[in-house]
Amino acid sequence: MTSTTTPTPATATPLRGREPRWPRVAAVVGAVATGAGWWASETVVYLPGVLLLALGVASLVRTRRRLGVLLGASVLVVGVGVPWLALARTDGGRLVEPVVHPYDEGVTVDTVARVVDSRRVLALDAESGLAWEWTPPDWSTIVGVVLLDAGRLLVAAQTATVLGPDGVAGPDLGTVHPAQVVAADGDVVVLRACDESGPRPAPCTWRGVDATDGSTAWTADGVTSDATVRLATTPRLGAPWPVPPTTAAVASADGVVTVRAASSGRPVLALDPDAGLRVLPVADAVVVASRAGDRCTAAAHDADGDPRWEAEVPCGVLDGLDARVSAFTSVVEVDGTLWTPDGTVVDLATGDVDERGAVTTGRSAPQGHGEDRLVLGSGVQVALSEDALVVTPVRGGDAWSVALDGGEVRTLVADGGLVVVEQYLRPRLLAELVAPGERRRHVVDAYDARTGAHVGRVVSGPQGTDGIVVSAGTAFVVDRGPDGERRVRAIGP
């Protein structure tokens, strides 16, 4: 008997449509564009990337459409909201009280930063704002200042006076130009006055003036000489404010150079005439350099004339000591070291010589020409290149660096334990849409000179800053607020 088997019909499996690939592609491309736009701070790349990412995320969750829409909306809100909130942040810094007019000099002294404009001296304090203010008694124009020891400041207006760290003024010292100050020690300031109307060498008088009562402590007669050179009384080559040395070099008509103590006029060292002789009083030392053919030597003596060291040095040191072109040598003193414009460094304590690279400019530079600069101060050497800021301790230690566009740096200041950099601000995201003025703003960053730790930042307007003064770990930034009024803000602990 033959049996027949009835076939069981197969279970039908519904065909599923192939999932579209475009949501994944949109999400990946959007994420890449968002990241690239964020890194480059380019709204034209960032915003389309966020929109594409949000659309891709919303479309990927197909089984739960509401969840997909919620995730996409969240991406859009976060992507637009974060840079929007960043635009609303404050310009930074602590606003301090004084209204500062355009000024000529900023002087750092211990815990007080003093700003000097043409009419007054303002002392800024990080806690109280304006510590004190001083104006010349006759409201005459201030032509210059000289930073003395013990935190005092010689202010030259129609007449000169010495201000103490607390703003108390001493007696009238008569008519004094800052360039006449050649030395200072204790209460005595040494002034050199020369009659340049006749032929050289011109006759000169060195006079030690007691700043407490204006009396003359001592005098000495001499002449101008290529053998006697001196440091500038204002910052040069990016170095901090110099303090006059404690000795003065006086050249006689017969060529003998006598080094005298600033406090008493007492001779401490006498040097015979030599065509290649250069004598430079610096800080509490006296550097004596000479040239014999291609061989150049230098020796250092202390303020009492006792020898410290003698060594052969590169002849570029003597070239830097040549002051025949101007009233001052181009050499600067930084933290017990002597720097020449070509970057030769001489340790005043030991005589050790090092090559550090040419010092090409000072504390600031014209707009758009900031690269390849070297600034000195705060115990460090600050080198600015095309793509980085490299900070190296003058007397050894670990260097640190910050990546930046050297061509965008406007001002560099190394003083008061900080390194302060002002540069053109790269517009933040969405600025083109809601803050077109952002493209013309500047940013000021302060770093700890020893460690490189970022201390703080302020954002300035299109005109940039009018000046930066640093004192004891606090940077005072002078600029104009949104209302156009001048203001002072402090960056620091």
From TrEMBL:
Residues 208-431 form the Pyrrolo-quinoline quinone repeat domain. Keywords: Membrane, Transmembrane, Transmembrane helix. It holds the Pfam family PQQ_2. The chain crosses the membrane at residues 22-39, 45-61, 68-87. This is Pyrrolo-quinoline quinone repeat domain-containing protein. It comes from Cellulomonas fimi (strain ATCC 484 / DSM 20113 / JCM 1341 / CCUG 24087 / LMG 16345 / NBRC 15513 / NCIMB 8980 / NCTC 7547 / NRS-133).
